[in-house]
Design a protein that fits this description.
With 253 residues, the protein is mainly alpha-helical. It is 73% helix and 0% strand.
Length: 253
């Protein structure tokens, strides 16, 4: 610090010492583990949010159209496309697409989107099949409302709550999938830090420097746990019966 900044020579010793960032140590190349874990959070959140947004948008569109129009279109979408993607293990299909597309953050987002949209489409289709037979939808159809108006004004606002819960839990799945792909060398390219790549790099130092593996693994665990808990809380709050029970419980205390 004093070599690069002459004014640091006048600082007290307690201020010129190592910063709290270095308390987590450094890796074999002298890189700060704390800084890389924090930067890896940005990569994981970016990938997770992008994957969830793309999967939810594609799944909502396909599920809305399939459930609303039905007939041969619904049979093709549900029996062929959705069932075909859901019949394969998601992580294995993501590994196959990532290996075909190559490493890189954009390729990871594309691979996870291709393998994850079917779950949102299946959920949206089931909600549409239930809601489109309700009285207010039938009344709007009898009054001459167009298909676009019924989809946008009557169906979409009433089916979006389960999709939001699925998207919140899907963030945890996307972060875990991105870490898995990076651990296998199919995810984010170096030198961009990723939690999965950091765990992979630390395998050879498990016994002599376990902190290199411990902190990125804890970061993955805490992120996945946080989004799962957030999804559970959001599901309880968006359900009217569960929300009424929670409110009654709070008032009774």
């Amino acid at each position: 610090l004093a070599r690069h900044n002459p004014t640091a020579q006048n600082l007290p010793a307690r201020l010129a010492g190592p910063s709290p960032a270095h308390w987590l140590g450094t890796d074999e190349l002298g890189r700060d583990v704390f800084a890389r874990v924090l930067y890896g959070a940005r990569v994981s959140i970016t990938v997770g949010a992008s994957v969830v947004a793309c999967c939810a948008a594609l799944g909502l569109l396909v599920g809305l159209l399939s459930g609303y129009f039905g007939g041969w279109f619904d049979r093709i979408i549900n029996a062929i496309l959705i069932n075909a993607f859901l019949s394969f293990p998601g992580i294995l299909l993501a590994i196959a697409f990532a290996a075909f597309l190559g490493p890189g953050i954009e390729k990871v987002i594309m691979a996870l989107t291709v393998t994850g949209w079917a779950a949102y489409a299946r959920l949206t289709r089931g909600q549409v099949l239930k809601v489109k037979e309700l009285d207010y939808v039938q009344a709007a159809r009898s009054l001459g409302a167009s298909h676009a108006r019924i989809l946008a004004r009557h169906l979409l606002p009433n089916i979006v709550s389960p999709v939001l819960v699925q998207a919140t839990i899907g963030m945890a799945s996307a972060i875990l999938a991105e870490s898995t792909l990076s651990f296998l060398g199919l995810g984010v390219l170096a030198p961009l830090p990723s939690w999965g790549a950091m765990v992979n790099d630390a395998r050879g130092h498990l016994f002599d420097a376990p902190h290199l593996l411990l902190f990125p693994a804890l970061a993955v665990m805490m992120a996945v746990l946080a989004f799962n808990l957030l999804g559970d809380a959001l599901r309880d709050w968006l359900d009217p019966r569960t929300r009424a029970q929670l409110v009654t419980l709070e008032l009774s205390r």
